[in-house]
User: Which sequence fits this backbone?
């Protein structure tokens, strides 16, 4: 990702338009070092200063387009290029009055300066490392502090090249199992909508589609929504699980068999009152196939069970038998439909 893409992510982050993945990426970068935190603070200061002097602009992309036009800049020098727009701008819902022009111009200059600093810190220093897994692939890795991570299929983890600060931070999208090396610094895992804090423990995280689930094997962790106050966090101990959905506070911990839920580490596919929509998404990742439903409402059905070393046809047959459905294959894709 080039530094123009990073500018776009930061702009969306401060405007509230960032996706869950983008928010998590910004948080992981920000907390990777004290230098990053200073740059973030400067960028935020500039953004908020401009926002205080202008009525709210509903769409960030359109605001930059209007700014470039009013300043008379050619497209390649327009602040719109900072955002690396990949889509046509939406229709503006308000005019930017001429009295706003100089405020936006000043903000643009300051943001450009901040983005240059950002580039020097992030890209010249190589702040973050990223490991990704494709469908039907798992990966084991060791973090700079000696902590061990097992990454499930269709997942991504980001972390600093060294944990030199007063805390250790990683960013996760997908599913992973952690064995965190104990030291005096807290260890944080940021997902799109939640943050997990530990000192030294063994636990699994599932983080997809604005939902984060945590199951603990050993030790103690805390879970809170990413924008919530620390006092809203819940504490989990061995064989407990909790979940954060969207921006809501985490559910109260409930007793589970953590080893069973984390069976994917041993080649198992485990479902625990899992909606069929989520079941299908998991099977697609594990088997690297396509599965369609004839009716989206079928996705509300839930499944509890586990499978190990079974062909996909056997897994689909068992699921359909349980839900009184049937499956088939056409054009290289599987489908599930009502009988």
Assistant:
């Amino acid at each position: 990702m080039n530094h123009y893409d990073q500018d776009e992510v930061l702009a969306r982050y401060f405007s509230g338009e960032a996706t869950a993945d983008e928010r998590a990426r910004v948080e992981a970068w920000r907390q990777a070092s004290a230098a990053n935190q200073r740059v973030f603070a400067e960028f935020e200061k500039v953004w908020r200063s401009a926002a205080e002097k202008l009525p709210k602009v509903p769409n960030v992309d359109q605001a930059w387009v209007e700014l470039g036009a009013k300043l008379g800049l050619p497209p390649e020098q327009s602040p719109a290029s900072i955002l690396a727009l990949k889509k046509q701008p939406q229709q503006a819902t308000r005019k930017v009055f001429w009295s706003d022009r100089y405020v936006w111009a000043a903000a643009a200059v300051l943001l450009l300066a901040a983005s240059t600093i950002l580039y020097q810190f992030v890209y010249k220093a190589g702040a973050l490392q990223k490991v990704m897994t494709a469908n039907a692939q798992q990966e084991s890795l060791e973090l700079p502090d000696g902590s061990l991570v097992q990454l499930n299929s269709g997942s991504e983890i980001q972390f600093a090249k060294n944990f030199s600060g007063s805390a250790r931070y990683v960013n996760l999208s997908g599913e992973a199992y952690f064995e965190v090396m104990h030291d005096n610094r807290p260890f944080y895992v940021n997902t799109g909508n939640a943050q997990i804090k530990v000192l030294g423990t063994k636990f699994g995280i599932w983080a997809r589609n604005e939902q984060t689930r945590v199951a603990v094997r050993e030790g103690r962790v805390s879970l809170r929504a990413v924008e919530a106050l620390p006092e809203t966090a819940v504490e989990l101990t061995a064989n407990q699980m909790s979940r954060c959905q969207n921006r809501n506070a985490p559910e109260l911990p409930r007793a589970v068999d953590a080893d069973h839920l984390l069976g994917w580490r041993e080649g198992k596919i485990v479902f625990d009152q899992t909606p069929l929509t989520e079941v299908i998404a998991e099977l697609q990742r594990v088997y690297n196939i396509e599965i369609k439903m004839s009716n989206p409402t079928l996705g509300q059905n839930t499944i509890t069970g586990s499978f190990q070393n079974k062909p996909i046809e056997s897994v689909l047959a068992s699921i359909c038998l349980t839900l009184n459905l049937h499956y088939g294959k056409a054009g290289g894709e599987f489908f599930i439909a009502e009988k």
User: Anything to note?
Assistant: The mean pLDDT is 80. The CA atoms of residues 108 and 188 lie 34 Å apart. The helical segments are 3-15, 20-30, 34-52, 60-71, 101-124, 258-261, 276-287, 312-323. The domain at 267-338 is CATH 3.55.50.30 (Phage tail protein beta-alpha-beta fold).
